[in-house]
Design a protein that fits this description.
43% of the residues lie in helices and 18% in strands. The chain is built from twelve helices and twelve strands. It is globular and about 45 Å long.
Length: 296
């Protein structure tokens, strides 16, 4: 099996998986339940989702660890189970990973603000990220996906923790939305600043995830590609959610995102997948499109 970096350096597009959280909800997880606890209490459930994504053509699946840091887990009373949840998540993904597949360790935001806006110090933030990084690294993931970052300071701390506590490749993606000032994160960070600062930290992949859908993701990638030669990753939401009968329903079907996926690929991205609301069916459609592009 080739290393992740070897695969990254080969020609062609790498296909990531789709959503975990909304997929869990769709399959019956109740509102208010800790998704990461499912790594322990419902391991077959998690493996089924990973397997569905691999079977749909994904080469990379992300661990069910987006909120598996001690600050987020504290909300559920699980702050002392960081290593347990992260280790279990990595092992579950690895158990169903095909020979040529990869497992990415998902690392989301802290869930609390850093000083001076909040009470968490930079050192505390670093330590929280480092604890999760080490757990995922020891469990054998192939790459770390630091994702859905909105604060550049927080993203920088997360990347430093990843680089200094593992030898893994690191991907850093931020979430942008189009407003009067153009594309910005909810904290006001523009694409140029994000790319320049994160690139200076020697990340291996840069890009964007989440947001309002594939149309805005296309605009984000158009901007980001002007400022970097690093491999670009795009993982858009399947549009904006509607709350129906207790669950989030996303309106961008696999057929709707198909031409938008083609546009993203035409822009020169290296990795593509989905975020909230995307399903194995979306990933299967992306796989078909990638195959067509490779034939061309």
């Amino acid at each position: 099996m080739s290393s992740f970096i070897d695969e990254l350096n080969k020609p062609g597009i790498l296909l990531c998986d789709g959503a975990m959280g909304t997929e869990l909800q769709k399959r019956g997880m109740a509102v208010g339940v800790c998704p990461e606890e499912y790594n322990i209490t419902n391991p077959k459930f998690i493996k089924e989702i990973h397997k569905d994504y691999y079977n749909s053509g994904a080469q990379i699946v992300e661990t069910n660890t987006f909120g598996a840091n001690c600050l987020r887990l504290k909300f559920y009373g699980f702050e002392n189970r960081v290593k347990e949840f992260n280790n279990a998540a990595a092992l579950l993904a690895r158990e169903v990973c095909p020979v040529n597949g990869f497992v990415a360790g998902s690392i989301g935001p802290l869930g609390e603000m850093i000083e001076p806006l909040g009470e968490i110090t930079e050192q505390q933030a670093y330590d929280v990220f480092a604890e999760q990084v080490i757990a995922l690294y020891e469990a054998g993931v192939d790459v770390l996906f630091i994702e859905t970052m909105m604060s550049l300071d927080e993203a920088v701390i997360a990347v430093k923790a990843a680089k200094e506590n593992s030898s893994l490749p690191v991907s850093a993606t931020m979430t942008f939305e189009l407003g009067k000032a153009g594309l910005r994160t909810p904290w006001g960070v523009d694409t140029k600043t994000a790319v320049e600062i994160l690139s200076s930290l020697d990340v291996d992949i840069i890009g964007s995830n989440c947001g309002k859908g594939f149309d805005e993701m296309i605009e984000v990638i158009k901007e980001m590609k002007q400022f970097t030669n690093l491999p670009l990753l795009a993982q858009a939401n399947a549009g904006l959610p509607e709350w129906l009968e207790g669950i989030s329903v996303y309106n961008e079907t696999p057929e709707i995102i198909a031409p938008k996926t083609e546009q993203l690929i035409s822009l020169g991205i290296k990795l593509i997948g989905g975020c909230c609301g995307t399903t194995p069916a979306h990933i299967k459609k992306m796989s078909e499109i990638i195959t067509n592009f490779n034939i061309r």
